[in-house]
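Write out a record, fold above all:
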Amino acid sequence: MQNSNTTYNQKETFYHITGYFDAETVAVLEDDLANLIEKETGRLILDLSTVDFIDSSGIGSIVFLFKRLRVQNRELVLKGVHGQPARLLKSLKVDQAIHTEFSEDTEALQ
């Protein structure tokens, strides 16, 4: 299982996810993610630096967030992406549509 926390800045919201970002995690975080879309303003930074695994449900959640935020003229940033999540986001070319900041160790492998 995972845990998450949210940090707020005037124009940015940082949301940190740990562990697996899979169907179970998406179900647990559903209300949090909806609140980030509906109640916050500015840029949303999704910190994935401690996410070791992501599946299609996690990818779908990210794409859903991206689309909803874009309608509000807001930006989604994926931060600290590494390992299996980085490989999957790159293979699906999600990083070409959504601003993605890979961890240093992932960048060194390119």
The domain at 4-108 is CATH 3.30.750.24 (Transcription Regulator spoIIAA). The chain has a mean pLDDT of 90. The chain has one domain: 4-108. The chain has five helices and five strands.
